[in-house]
Amino acid sequence: MKTFMTRNSSPTQCPLCGGTKKSGTTTFTADFEFGIVVVREVPATVCTLCGAEWIKDDVAARLEGIVEEAKKKRLQVEVTTLA
Ligand SMILES: [Zn+2]
């Protein structure tokens, strides 16, 4: 599963396969040296054809914050939701 930022991409057409994107949710995971962060119910735009996903900049920033927080606390496993 690949996740992309929305920057430079069409809001409705998938640049990878030409399929149609629609809004939905995804599960974001971040793997770092000593732990893993899983964020569920992340708002995303998903291609109905190939399943590629795009996350908006503000959502990406929130995910980054969650990852930074987990790193600071040195959590081995953090599972949370964004919704
Ligand atoms: Zn696609």
In short:
By secondary structure, the protein is α/β, with parallel strands linked by helices. It has one helix and five strands. It is elongated.
Small molecules bound: zinc ion
Q: Name the poorly predicted regions.
A: none
Biggest sheet overview: 5 strands, mixed
Tell the overall outline: elongated
Approximate strand percentage: 35-45%
Count of discrete domains: 1
Helix content: 10-25%
Report how far the terminal alpha carbons are from each other.
20 Å
For the secondary structure, the number of strands is 5
Under CATH, the topology can be stated as Ubiquitin-like (UB roll)
Please name the defining characteristics of this protein.
single chain; 83 residues; alpha/beta; Ubiquitin-like (UB roll); 5-stranded mixed sheet; 43% strand; elongated; binds zinc ion
Folded structure, characterized:
- The chain is an alpha/beta fold and 83 residues long.
- It has one domain: Ubiquitin-like (UB roll) (Roll).
- The chain is 20% helix and 43% strand.
- The chain is built from one helix and five strands.
- It has one helix at residues 57-73, and strands at 3-5, 21-32, 35-47, 53-55, 77-81.
- Strands 1, 2, 3, 4 and 5 form a five-stranded mixed sheet that branches.
- Strand 3 and strand 4 form a beta hairpin.
- The longest helix is centred in the C-terminal third of the chain and has 17 residues, at 57-73.
- It is elongated and about 40 Å long.
- The two termini are 20 Å apart.
- The model has no long low-confidence stretch (mean pLDDT 90).
- The structure holds zinc ion.
- Zinc ion binds next to loops.
